[in-house]
Each structure stands twice: as structure tokens, then as C-alpha cells.
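We emphasize that the prediction below concerns an isolated chain of 213 residues; any contacts that depend on oligomerization or on bound cofactors are therefore not represented. The input was used exactly as deposited, without trimming of termini.
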Amino acid sequence: MTDALSLVSIGFAFFVVAVSPGPANISNATIAMSKGRKVSLVYGAGLSIGLLFWGIVAASGLGVVLQGSVYLLMLLKIVGGVYLLWLAYLSFKSSFNAAATVSTNDSQEVGYRKWFVRGVVLNSSNPKTVVAWMAALSVGMGSSSDGLFLVAAVLTCMLVGFLVNGMYSLLFSINGVMNVYQKVAHWVERVVSGIFALAGLGLLRSAFSRNPA
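Result of the prediction step, given as a C-alpha cell string:
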């Protein structure tokens, strides 16, 4: 019973972190509005797999090593920051070509792998995700927690991650939401571009600070 309550606590803590607006959720919502539900679900699946990478890092104890390795953390932050700036450029560029039309034909399936990979890269290139994992896992972990419980905790968080990404995909691909997006697509893309740029610059600044967080 205690283990079940601990898993619920961990899952809820991870839900609070996962559902909050950030580069991953904002990009997923934008893709859902502009590309439709199928593409967004594929992209969200990629985000979830990228999330799993950091979950394994945190659960295996490498998270502590990562936090203590200045140069490794710096490298990861640089990679993540550059990728976010690249996404900012792509969003800003697409804002000038936002035709406010959502394609749902079968030819879109050709790009599914591309969207999945983008999701994986976005979340796996963000080293701050390991901090979120460690914070969530610490909520329900105790000195008596064994390896099996740790695996169950990671699986619980992964389930929460998939549910949150799926929720964003379903919510923002509703026709009414998509219709609104069609009218303000260029502004949405520019706002998203700005958020990506700020997040990317923040990671780069953190990477080169004397005491990187």
C-alpha cells in the first residue's frame, strides 16, 4: 500500500512538471494546431521517448554524475541551446509562410518519421529534464526503495509523460482550436520562435556561466 501511494506521489509530481508550459509542450501544441492530430501524436511520442532517455539517466544515478561533471553538462547545454535556437529560426521562417491551412492528406505520412525524430531530439537534448526526473523521483523514494520500485517509478513517470503529450495533441488539434490557429498562425509561430530563442539563449548562458545550474 505504501509503495502504491509513493508511486502516486511520484506520478503526480512528474505530472505537475510535465504539464507546465515549456519548449516541448509549446512546440507540440503548435504542431497539433498547424499539422493536425496524427502528426502531433507522432511528435509527442518522440518527445516521450526523449524523456525516457533522461529518466534512465536519473534512475541509474548518472544524474548525480551529470550534475557534478561541469564539462559534460556544459556540452549538453550547448547542444540543447543550439537546437532550440534552430527551432526558433524554423518557427520564425515558417511564420512568413503560414497559409493557415491544415493538410490532412495521406502524403503527410511521409514526414512522420521526421516529426518523431524531432521530438526525440528536442527532449533528449535538454539536460534540465534530468533535474525534473530527479525531483519527481525523490518525492516518493526512500532509503528502503529497491530496484524494482525504481523501475516502477520510471514506468509511472513515462506513462504520465505519454498521457501529457497525448493530451496536448488531442486538445490543440480540436477543430475549433485549429480554426482559431488558422487566423493567427503567423503570430503564434513568432511567439513560439521567441520562446524557443529565449530558452536556447538561457541554456547557452547557463552553459558558459561559472557556476552552471
